[in-house]
Amino acid sequence: MSQLNLKKHHIVVIGAGFGGIDFVNHLKHRDVQITLIDKRNHHLFQPLLYQVASASLAPSEIAWPVRHLFRNRKDVRTLMAEVVDIDKVLRKVILSSGDCILYDSLVIATGATHTYFGNDNWAPYALSLKTLEDATKIRSKILTAFEKAEHSKDDKLKDALQTFVVVGGGATGVEIAGTIAELAHNTLKKDFRFLDTTKTKVLLIEAGPRVLPMFPESLSRYTTKSLEKLGIKVLTNSPVTNCDSEGVVFNGERLMTFNIIWAAGVKASPAAVWLGAESDWAGRVIVDSYLNVPSFPEIFVIGDTASVKMSDGSDVPGIAPAAKQGGEYVANVINNKLKKKPHLKPFKYNHQGNFATIGRSLAVIDLGFIKLRGGVAWWIWKLVHIYFLVGIRSRLSVAISWVWNHTFGYRSSRIIVGDTQEKEGAESN
Amino acid sequence: MSQLNLKKHHIVVIGAGFGGIDFVNHLKHRDVQITLIDKRNHHLFQPLLYQVASASLAPSEIAWPVRHLFRNRKDVRTLMAEVVDIDKVLRKVILSSGDCILYDSLVIATGATHTYFGNDNWAPYALSLKTLEDATKIRSKILTAFEKAEHSKDDKLKDALQTFVVVGGGATGVEIAGTIAELAHNTLKKDFRFLDTTKTKVLLIEAGPRVLPMFPESLSRYTTKSLEKLGIKVLTNSPVTNCDSEGVVFNGERLMTFNIIWAAGVKASPAAVWLGAESDWAGRVIVDSYLNVPSFPEIFVIGDTASVKMSDGSDVPGIAPAAKQGGEYVANVINNKLKKKPHLKPFKYNHQGNFATIGRSLAVIDLGFIKLRGGVAWWIWKLVHIYFLVGIRSRLSVAISWVWNHTFGYRSSRIIVGDTQEKEGAESN
Fold first, then answer.
1. Which residues numbered 130-159 in B keep a CB inside 8 Å of some CB on A?
2. How far is Cα A249 from Cα A205, in angstroms, rounded to an integer?
3. Domain B9-39+81-111+269-338 sits in CATH 3.50.50.60
4. Could you give the residue numbers annotated as active site of B?
5. Which residues of A have a catalytic role annotated?
6. Which segments in chain A show pLDDT lower than 70?
7. Which parts of the sequence belong to the External alternative NADH-ubiquinone oxidoreductase-like C-terminal domain (chains A, B) (predicted)?
8. B116-265: which CATH number, 3.50.50.100, 3.30.2130.10, 1.10.10.10, 3.40.640.10?
9. Would you say A283 and A272 are in contact if contact means Cβ atoms under 8 Å apart?
């Protein structure tokens, strides 16, 4: 049992998302010890989380124990714990247990969470999608709604149970709306006796002027049309002004529904508060061009928690490749420092492209030099995502799930777990 | 959307376990309508539940939506609801929502649950294993214990976190003890830096004189020896007299542990109470030799909820094949009745054998005419269980999980979900 060697340079990494994992993967130095802290025991492949929420994949297909990923790295110790503060002067991370961990270098990669833009009272009604628990909760909610609708004798209630509202027209919103529509219109069609699941209403509500604002306008238009073909009502320029137990309000009108999914707002983790550092409008720590917190060359912030500008003045987007590139860059910076090599050039984000799926057979891809849409894009999307999963086991498992889903319309994870006895105004029978 | 046809004979089935599902599978008659009620939306393959608890399989690999199983049976409607009472005279089933469902024939297949023999206050400390939620809770508990032990500085606490006590030496107890020992001694060995997982203590505590009492004595002895080789301490004639937040008491002594798994007592569902019918010591409804509730020829009870005697005077065991045979038998009884054919012979349980695994490469099988043990028995066990899973998709998925587990010692479902911040006297760090 190796104990912490105090003579070695000790790097503490907070967060085992894409940024934290890639940092550790790239930092290998014999005089370094790494402590990787995360609230959870697993690394989560967040781009596929919506497929857990829609019963296509099982949680364990897109999550891996952090310590298993680094089982062969004796220089890495894993700690499942919650960080509550950072002491920049004494160089220590403070945990919720009261314990402190001293560092020589600190890498913060704590990601982002959802925000209701100050309306936290909407949270119980508008479910968000950031963790595996969120995903299984949404899955249970969707499946339970159909179970209740099957035996509801009140047409108005039945209608509300069969109405799904996705708030937010970004990639997650588009993907979850598409997959709910296909679940209702295809997968579940033969399963019910008193319910026409093809009459299920799915609405995608976006406050801005178009869906997928990070894509070129032509792909946004294509996406809207494709979603409409799947039977989804797409509403743009429609900010939501209320969510409660009976439904959602937008454009001054109330729509009755028990199924609201929140894919609208993202805010950074509280790293800026821990650091007492300057932050931008989304709560992200403003770092210099070396991903350093100004005046603290031993503290780095990467991924969704960092506010970094590109050469054209726009923000580096909060997506997995940006976090991974940040992780790799900081690993090189620290490596160079330890080897007393000259300092690296400033961080430059290399945008590889944007991806989004629309249901189970279409996708849009914008690689800058080329734009793809339709079935071919969808195949590329699948292959790319399989490639980025961890390990042969997961790749095989996800590939089989997708083949089954695509060929037979079958979704293997349609199980309701957790409290199924919730009421929320909707009575069964 | 077909509505309930009041002219047809209406059979209500309560419970979508092995008995209920097999009943519906065997009852096909054009003048019959079936309503299948279950609290949950899924049929669960309970014999493999311990593998979910020990992170080898994912929940969705052993559970299937009930309505999906009968999607091509227009005569079957599925209802996810909780039954709270039965009115035998007016022939109706009463649901927790207050709604009633009238029946012409009633088949009760509500199974069994665990019992703490009157000590329900042990429940928070001694986790039982009957549902998918139970399994993921036990899985999180086991994995969290290792996470906490890794960073515990108190040797006594560390020891208690690394001590697992399984109460009950039946098949479930033996299987879960074996799989925890292998998890600790093999799967997790390389994952920790400050913890020697091979020092994990696993105890199997049985009140009676031997483990696997339903097997011949020679196989019980073999099982005990095999468990001991896996590093498990097997204690027989040791009734547990207390379970609390600090450990377990047996043989007048207290053992400190935070990880107690309860595989000891089984009691029937409250069907006898609903029916106001005579029940045996385990709460099972006493039925006649046609699986009928005396004086109510339209009410049948099958599986773990029924008390049925074999020709030698002993009870039909509470295992899946007995429930399935009961389901098939009652389907034939009702079929004959509807076709005005002569009444069947009394139900005769055909015992096919007992199975239990010991870790990931040994098993014991008692088929009566032949007894098997060791690696061959284990292969047979695997093949039999794969065969009984529902659908090619699940068979493929479970087979892959087992190959990976067996070949690489890898368990894909080692994710902690749910509330990981529970304290229970064990502080991390």
1. 132-133, 136, 143-144, 147, 150-151
2. 11
3. yes
4. 175
5. 175
6. 1-4, 419-429
7. 351-409
8. 3.50.50.100
9. yes
